[in-house]
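One example given next:
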Amino acid sequence: MTDAEHDSDSERYAYSRTALARLVLSAELRELADSAGDGVATTQDMWAHPGEVVGHALDLVRQAQEVLARAVIYERQKGTSWEAIGEQLDVKKQSAHERYKPAVEEWKLALQEPFYPAPPERPVRNRRLHDAAYAPTAAGRRLDQWVREHIPAHRETTHPVTAHLPTLTTAEELVQVLDALNHLYNDALAPPDRAARARLAERKAALLDRIAVEDGRPEAAEQAAEARARAAQLRAEADRAAQ
């Protein structure tokens, strides 16, 4: 795994999982809109193969099904019940659960393990996590720009997508950091990245300090000191390795 990939691991902890799910949904909706727009003009109709327009329409249906799955993931990430989702789908709770639970579980797994497992001899691994969740800051900028360019009502809105994403609580951010650290330490196919581990350890310490003050928990302050010492150790190891 490259340094850039580890930087993305560090970046994601600044976003709640609900925000990441919403960014992915927005990205899929944008792709569907772009694909649908390709079929509006008639300039290529005379060169189209028989049935090609039907094929394009079928592709849109498949994309719409992916959008629907992403919408369910987002709703579940928000805490929406399967019963409420089933009502919107006009199916029973159990049917909605059976149909979309695998997608929800895959989403959760991808957040913890962004890449599919691969043999050691393969230098590049396929990414499991959607691009918009893997690099949310860049994705958010692109989505903000797309909305301003394509939706007249939002042409003067600075951040029509990113300004309204669900906020991240301290506890949620700590969970994100711990997940990222767990991924870095347990990724047997990637060389140890001490600098990335140090960045996350420093962030962990800062969050624990905040919890110690806001919640009045002295044990959190002790854990913060341990995390900060570990970060310093990792920084020193990274500096020695770079020499």
Remarks:
- The two ends are 21 Å apart (CA to CA).
- The chain is about 70% helix and 0% strand.
